[in-house]
Specification:
The structure holds 3 protein chains of 3 kinds.
Chain A: H1 7-36, E1 64-66, H2 81-85, E2 91-97, E3 103-111, H3 120-124, E4 130-132, E5 147-149
Antiparallel strand pairs in A: 1-4, 2-3, 3-5
Chain B: E1 23-28, E2 40-46, E3 49-56, H1 64-68, H2 73-80, H3 88-103, H4 109-138, H5 141-162, E4 171-172, E5 175-176, H6 184-206, H7 210-216, H8 224-230, H9 234-239, H10 246-249, H11 270-294, E6 313-320, E7 325-332, E8 341-345, H12 348-353, H13 355-359, H14 364-374, H15 378-382
Antiparallel strand pairs in B: 1-2, 2-3, 4-5, 6-7, 7-8
Helix pairs in contact in B: 2-3, 3-4, 4-5, 4-11, 4-14, 5-6, 6-11, 11-14
Chain C: H1 9-22, H2 32-73, H3 89-98, H4 110-130, H5 145-166, H6 170-201, H7 206-211, H8 221-224, H9 228-243, H10 255-258, H11 268-293, H12 305-313, H13 316-335, H14 343-372
Helix pairs in contact in C: 1-2, 2-3, 2-4, 2-11, 2-13, 3-11, 4-5, 4-11, 5-6, 6-9, 6-14, 9-11, 9-14, 11-13
The chains are: A alpha+beta, B alpha+beta, C mainly alpha.
C-alpha cells in the first residue's frame, strides 16, 4: 500500500497524529484507571473458599447417576437405550434374568473416564431412570474410581 | 525480493534497498502463543519480512466426519460442539436444521425465539473472544481479560439454559432439548445492559488507540475478488466489501422477522475486520432486545418428539456462525438413524488458506495481527 | 586519602572505629594509611551489601506489585493464597525458579549463554549506586554521574544481544536484533533528556541536581521551567520505558510474536536473572526520574510553613521511595494499558518523533535559560 502523497500532506498527517495520538492513548489510560480504582468490578471468585455456597444449576451435566430410592430401587429395565445413545461407549448395561425369567438389570457400569457429559443417555432413557447430577468436583488421583457401578443392587424392574 | 513498506513516506523519501539478503525459514507453531491452537505455519522470511507462508493443518485432526458415519444423527449434534468450540451452540443449530429438512418437522414459535436468542448470545461470546485475542495478540493482555470477562457471563446464562458452558448440545430436530427457565429473559436483559456499558469502555480502550490504528490499518488487505475466490465468509468477507450474510441472503429460523443491519466495510484490512465484529456485537444486541420484547410467554417450545430417522436423500443447511458460513451436508443412503456421510463446511479453513495472500511483504508482528483478525479456531479446521 | 565528599553516619562510624580497633594490633603494622584502606574496604562492603539489598529486595516487592496492579486493571484479584493477600507468593515463585534445573539448548554457545544474564545485571546495579537516596545516603557521589549512567546503560543491550545470539534459536535472534536496534535508538533520546536536565541544573552530579530543586514543589525541574519541564518528563518516561524493554515497547520479548524473544531458551536461575534485571531497571529508571524531575529525596513542600514543617519531619528516604513507587505504578499502568507497536513503527517513532522533539526541547531549554535564567 504505497500511496503517493505530497510532502505537505505528509506533514499535515504527521502533526495531526501528534495531536490525536496522545489523546487516544489518554482515553485508553482513563479506562484502565477507572477499572483499577473500582474494586466493585472485580469478578474473581475465590473458589475453595466459596465451596459452601457454590451450587450448580439443576440442568448442569455433571456425573451420571441412577435415580434410586432409599432401598436402592430404580426404574431401569436394562433396555440398553442409553448404551446405544452414548457416542463413546461409556455405558455398559449388563442384564441378567430374575427367577421369573424376565430380563432385569444386573450391573450398570459407567466409565466416567470416557464420558463427555453430553447427556444423550438421559434423553434416551424411556423410563427416567438416570440423571446427571450437579457434581462438578470430579477430579481424582485414582483412575480406578472412574469405573463405577451405578445401581446399588441387582435385579430390579 | 520484497521491498519494505514505508507507506507513510512521500515518494522521494522512500528508502530503496539494494542489498541482497539471505532468506531463512522459521516455524511458527504448532506450539506458539498466537496461532490459536495447534496450527503450524512455515514462514519463509527475509529478515523480519515474510516472503511466503505455508500453513500445515492436521495437528488435531480427529476425523469427525468419518466418525459420524458410525454415529447416529443425535450423536453427531454432540460432536458438532467440538468443532468450533467458540460457537458450539451455533454449530448445533447448523446440524439440526439439516436434520429437520430431512425429517420434515417444523419448530414452534417459542422454539425459534429460543434458537435465535441463543444464536446471538453465542455470536456475542465469540466476538468477545475475538476482541480479547485481538488485543492480546497485539500485546495488550488486559484486553484478553476484558473480552473473557463478559464472555463468562454469557456462558453463565448458557449453563443455566443448556446445562453446559461450552459444549452445549442443546438443539434437537423440532426445537431444543429444554424450555428456557423463567430467569432467562431477565438475565439476558440485565446482561445486555451491562454489555452496553462494558462495550463503551472496551471500544474506548482499543478502537481509537493510535497504536492499534497504526498496526491494523492497511495491514493484511484482502481484496473483494480474493475474498470471494478463496471462499471466505462471515466478517472477513464483509470487511472486504461483500454484503453477504446467510441470515439475510438465505434466512433460516426466524431471522427474516428481525430488524438488523449487516455491517459492511470496504477496505478489507485488519482494522475493518476488527470494526465489523464490534459492529456485529451491537447488531446482535439489537436482535436480542427485539427478541426480549417479542418473546412468547407460553406455547410449545418444541414440536412433537419423534425418533430422529432420516429418509433416503441429501440434505443441506447453511447458517451464519460468528466466524462465517457453517454448512452441513447430510447424505442418508438408507432410512435410519445413521448417516451415510456427513460433511461440514467450516468457515475458518478458507480464511487460513487466504493467509498467504494477506501476509506477503508484512512483518512477523503483522502476521500475528492478521491471524487474530481472521479469528480461526483450529479444531474446526482440522475437525 | 579515600575521603568521600558526602559524609554518612555509618561511614563516619566505621572510620572512627577502625583506628580504635587497630590499636590492638602490633605497633609495627599500624599506620594511618592502612587504617584508611581498611575503613574504605569495610565501607565499600557495606555499600555493596546495601545496593544488593535495595535491588534484590525490591524485585519481589515489584513483582508482587505488578501482579496486583495488573490484576486490578483486569478486574481480577491477583495472588491471594500464600500469606495475607498473596504476599509470600513471589518468594515462593523465586524459590521455585532457583531450584529448577539449568540447561542450555544444544548448539548454544554455553559461555555466552550463561554470561548474558550476568551482563544484563551490571547496568542497573551500577546506576543504583549513583542515585542519592537521601541527603547522606549515596554510594558513589561521582561528579560525572549522568555521563556514567549513560555509558553504563549500554551494557543492557550487550547482554540481551549475547543472550539472543547464543541461544541458537531463530526467535531469540530476532528478539535480540530487535532489542539491539531499539535500545540503541532510544538511548539517543534518553541521553538527550538527561542532557536537558544537565543543562537546566548546570551539573552532572546527581546530588547537586537534586539539591538544585530545593524549595517548594514549583522548584522541581518538572515544574520549574513551565511546559518544557512537563514535556521533558513525558519524553523521559517514554524513552526510559523503551530503554527498559517494558511494554508497550517490549518488542524484544513480544510473547505473542516471538514466544519470549531473547529469553525464550532461558530457564531457572538465568531466566530469573533476566527477570531481576528487568525489575531493577524499573527501580533505577524510576529513581532517575525522581532524582532528575521530581526533587529526589526532597519533600513536596507547598510554601506554607505550617505544612512544610511536618513534611520536612519525614526522612528523605521515605519521600524518595514514595516518589519511586509512584513512578513505578505509572510504568505499570502504562504497561497494562497499551498494545505493542510494530518494530518499524517503533523506529519511526524514535527517529521521526522523539528525536526531533528532543532537539526542539533542547533549543527551547537553552533559549529559556538565556532569556529568563
Amino acid at each position: 500500500m504505497q500511496e503517493n502523497i505530497t510532502l505537505l500532506q505528509y506533514f499535515k498527517r504527521y502533526f495531526k497524529r501528534c495531536i490525536t495520538g496522545p489523546w487516544s492513548l489518554m482515553c485508553g489510560l482513563s479506562v484502565s484507571l477507572k477499572y483499577f480504582f473500582d474494586p466493585r468490578r472485580i469478578v474473581t471468585e475465590q473458589y475453595p473458599e466459596n465451596r459452601k455456597t457454590l451450587r450448580m444449576h439443576p440442568r448442569y451435566r455433571g456425573r451420571l447417576e441412577m435415580i434410586e430410592d432409599a432401598d436402592g430401587n430404580n426404574h431401569c429395565t436394562a433396555c440398553g437405550m442409553c448404551e446405544r445413545a452414548c457416542p463413546n461407549a461409556s455405558i455398559n448395561v449388563l442384564s441378567t434374568k430374575n427367577i421369573a425369567g424376565k430380563k432385569v438389570l444386573g450391573r450398570y457400569v459407567y466409565h466416567f473416564a470416557s464420558c463427555t457429559q453430553c447427556g444423550l443417555c438421559v434423553e434416551a432413557c424411556p423410563f427416567g431412570a438416570i440423571r446427571m447430577n450437579q457434581d462438578f468436583e470430579v477430579a481424582t488421583t485414582d483412575p480406578n474410581t472412574l469405573e463405577m457401578i451405578l445401581n446399588k443392587k441387582e435385579g430390579q424392574g | 525480493m520484497i521491498q519494505p513498506r514505508f507507506s507513510n513516506l512521500p515518494p522521494g523519501f522512500r528508502i530503496q534497498r539494494e542489498t541482497n539478503t539471505e532468506e531463512f525459514f522459521i516455524n511458527m507453531g504448532p506450539q506458539h502463543p498466537s496461532t490459536h491452537g495447534a496450527l503450524r505455519l512455515a514462514l519463509r522470511m527475509d529478515g523480519e519480512t515474510i516472503v511466503e507462508l505455508v500453513p500445515h493443518f492436521g495437528y488435531i485432526h480427529r476425523g469427525m466426519e468419518k466418525q459420524a458415519e458410525s454415529m447416529s444423527y443425535l450423536q453427531y449434534i454432540a460432536l458438532s460442539d467440538r468443532q468450533d468450540y467458540l460457537t458450539a451452540i451455533q454449530n448445533n443449530l447448523g446440524v439440526v436444521i439439516a436434520l429437520e429438512k430431512g425429517m420434515n418437522v417444523g419448530v414452534p414459535e417459542k422454539g425459534e425465539y429460543i434458537r435465535v436468542m441463543l444464536q446471538e448470545l453465542g455470536r456475542i461470546a465469540s466476538h468477545l473472544v475475538f476482541y480479547g485475542c485481538f488485543g492480546g495478540d497485539l500485546g495488550g493482555q488486559t484486553c484478553l481479560l476484558f473480552g473473557f470477562k463478559e464472555r463468562e457471563m454469557i456462558h453463565d446464562i448458557l449453563e443455566e439454559v443448556t446445562g453446559s458452558r461450552l459444549t452445549t448440545n442443546f438443539f434437537r430436530p423440532g426445537g431444543s432439548r429444554y424450555d428456557v427457565p423463567d430467569t432467562f429473559i431477565p438475565r439476558v436483559k440485565a446482561f445486555l445492559d451491562h454489555l452496553e456499558d462494558a462495550m463503551r469502555d472496551y471500544e474506548r480502550f482499543l478502537s481509537k488507540n493510535i497504536i492499534v490504528l497504526e498496526r491494523s490499518i492497511g495491514i493484511g488487505v484482502l481484496s473483494k475478488e480474493d475474498a470471494i475466490a478463496y471462499g471466505c465468509s462471515g466478517p472477513v468477507l464483509r470487511a472486504s466489501g461483500v454484503e453477504f450474510d446467510v441470515r439475510r441472503a438465505n434466512p433460516y429460523s426466524i431471522y427474516d422477522q428481525f430488524d438488523f443491519d449487516i455491517p459492511v466495510f470496504h477496505n478489507g484490512d485488519c482494522y475493518d475486520r476488527y470494526k465489523i465484529r464490534i459492529a456485529e456485537i451491537h447488531e446482535s444486541m439489537k436482535i436480542l432486545r427485539q427478541c426480549i420484547d417479542k418473546f412468547p410467554k407460553d406455547g410449545p417450545w418444541r414440536s412433537k418428539e419423534k425418533p430422529v430417522r432420516l429418509p433416503v436423500g441429501r440434505y443441506y443447511s447453511e447458517i451464519e456462525t460468528a466466524k462465517g458460513l457453517y454448512a452441513t451436508y447430510v447424505v442418508a443412503a438408507t432410512t435410519g438413524e445413521k448417516p451415510y456421510r456427513i460433511h461440514t463446511r467450516g468457515p475458518s479453513f478458507p480464511h487460513i488458506a487466504a493467509l498467504n495472500k494477506m501476509v506477503q511483504g508484512h512483518k512477523v508482528s503483522d502476521l500475528v495481527t492478521i491471524m487474530a483478525t481472521l479469528d480461526p479456531v483450529i479444531p474446526e479446521i482440522d475437525r | 586519602m579515600f575521603v568521600p565528599s558526602i559524609t554518612n553516619p555509618v561511614g563516619d562510624f566505621v572510620r572512627e572505629m577502625v583506628p580504635r580497633l587497630a590499636e590492638y594490633l602490633p605497633a609495627s603494622i599500624q599506620s594511618d594509611t592502612l587504617n584508611s584502606i581498611v575503613a574504605f574496604l569495610v565501607n565499600a562492603l557495606i555499600c555493596v551489601i546495601a545496593v544488593c539489598a535495595v535491588n534484590i529486595g525490591s524485585a519481589p516487592i515489584l513483582i508482587y506489585m505488578e501482579r496486583k496492579v495488573c490484576a486490578h486493571v483486569q478486574c481480577r484479584l491477583g495472588p491471594m493464597r500464600l500469606g495475607w493477600h498473596g504476599t509470600i507468593q513471589t518468594i515462593a515463585d523465586v524459590l521455585k525458579m532457583l531450584f529448577k534445573e539449568v540447561y542450555a539448548p544444544s548448539g548454544a554457545d554455553k559461555l555466552m549463554f550463561y554470561l548474558a544474564p550476568l551482563i544484563v545485571l551490571i547496568a542497573p546495579f551500577i546506576v543504583c549506586a549513583l542515585i542519592p537516596f537521601g541527603r547522606d545516603l549515596v554510594v558513589a557521589d561521582v561528579s560525572m554521574g549522568i555521563p556514567l549512567i549513560i555509558a553504563v546503560n549500554g551494557f543492557g543491550v550487550l547482554g540481551i544481544l549475547l543472550g539472543g545470539w547464543s541461544s541458537n534459536n531463530k526467535y531469540s535472534l530476532l528478539g535480540a536484533l530487535r532489542s539491539g536496534a531499539q535500545m540503541i535508538s532510544y538511548e539517543i533520546s534518553f541521553t538527550m533528556i538527561l542532557l536537558f536536565v544537565v543543562m537546566i541544573s548546570g551539573s552532572t552530579n546527581l546530588m547537586s541536581i537534586t539539591l538544585g530543586q530545593e524549595g517548594t514543589i514549583s522548584d522541581w525541574w518538572i515544574f520549574k521551567i513551565p511546559v518544557l519541564g512537563i514535556i521533558a518528563f513525558i519524553l523521559f518516561f517514554i524513552s526510559s520505558t523503551a530503554e527498559m524493554n517494558r511494554a508497550p515497547f517490549d518488542i524484544a520479548e513480544a510473547e505473542q510474536e516471538l514466544t519470549g524473544g531473547y529469553h525464550t531458551e532461558y530457564n531457572g536461575t538465568p531466566f530469573a536473572m533476566f527477570y531481576l534485571a528487568e525489575y531493577i531497571a524499573l527501580v533505577t529508571n524510576s529513581a532517575l526520574a525522581t532524582t532528575c524531575f521530581l526533587g529526589g529525596f526532597l519533600p513536596p513542600c507547598i510554601g506554607v510553613a505550617f505544612v512544610d514543617n511536618y513534611l520536612n519531619m519525614v526522612p528523605g528516604v521515605v519521600w524518595f521511595f514514595a516518589k519511586v513507587f509512584f513512578m513505578i505504578w505509572c510504568y505499570m499502568m502504562v504497561r497494562w494499558t497499551f498494545v505493542r507497536p510494530r518494530v518499524d513503527q517503533l523506529m519511526d517513532f524514535e527517529w521521526k518523533f522523539l528525536l526531533p522533539v528532543n532537539l526542539v526541547l533542547l533549543i527551547a531549554g537553552a533559549a529559556y535559560i538565556v532569556v529568563c535564567g
